[in-house]
Amino acid sequence: MNHDRLPRIIYEWDASLNTDAWARSVEFILQYCNMLEDVSNHEPMSESATDERGLVHVDLDAVQSRLKRLDGEKWWLAAADMQKLRTFKEIFDDQDYKGIVYTPLNRRQRSLVIKLKIGILSLGLEKGRFTNVPLEYRLCLICDDDLLDNEYHFLLYCEALVETRSKFFGDNTFLEDVEDPTDPAELCKLLLNSHNLKKTARFLEEMYRIRQSKLYG
Ligand SMILES: [Zn+2]
Known about the structure:
mainly alpha, single chain, elongated, about 55% helix, 2 domains, 12 helices, about 0% strand, binds zinc ion
């Protein structure tokens, strides 16, 4: 932006105050996005970024998307140490995040799907956290396989729920599309994508109902 432009004069005056004022915030954001160079040059950086009045345009969409990306990277880094998000990290699909919002589900189904996705469904693995049961003892109590009672075991492998699961898998040929059927995360992603979520939610509701009745009668 040219030196004699009023916004530039105000920006430089504001910045010279050495307070946490508007100019500092703008500078901080642009620096964080590694875009400060682009707008602080005395001469306009390029023809394409300058309009006929000589104003340099900051691409706010680019700033927003860079902020989102940087924030996302920071979150995933922090999430690496969050045991609770074990399944969420594996089944998260950034191309399909709208499914849970737009798929018409009843209250119970929506609650179960969300709890499953973020790892707070009341399974042995999660409940054991509150009673200090060592991880290796948080086993499934409705089958005899002595396997960890986690999201994958419950939804895909528990022998005590094989009847309901077989019927669901048999009725839904979309499950044949999964590239690696031995990869539980891939299977869950397919089950939970927006095309299949409605059916999966019904299946999950039924599976959870049977599980609870086997546990508590
Ligand atoms: Zn089991």
